[in-house]
Amino acid sequence: MARIELGDGDGMEVAKVWAQVPHMAGAIHEMSKAVYERSSLPIREREVARMRIAQLNSCDI
Length: 61
Description:
Elements: H1 13-20, H2 22-37, H3 43-56
C-alpha cells in the first residue's frame, strides 16, 4: 500500500504511481528487466533479498 495519496480511480496502485512520473516509467522498466531477466543471482537468493528489503522498509511480505 502506497504511503502517499494517489487519488481515486480505477487501476492498480502501481499504475497510479507511475502515472505521476511517466518520464521515469521507461527507465524503471529497463531496470526491472535487468534484475529479473539478466541477473546473475539465482531466483531464490534474489527473492530472499527482495523480502528482506521489504521487511526493512516495513512492508508486508
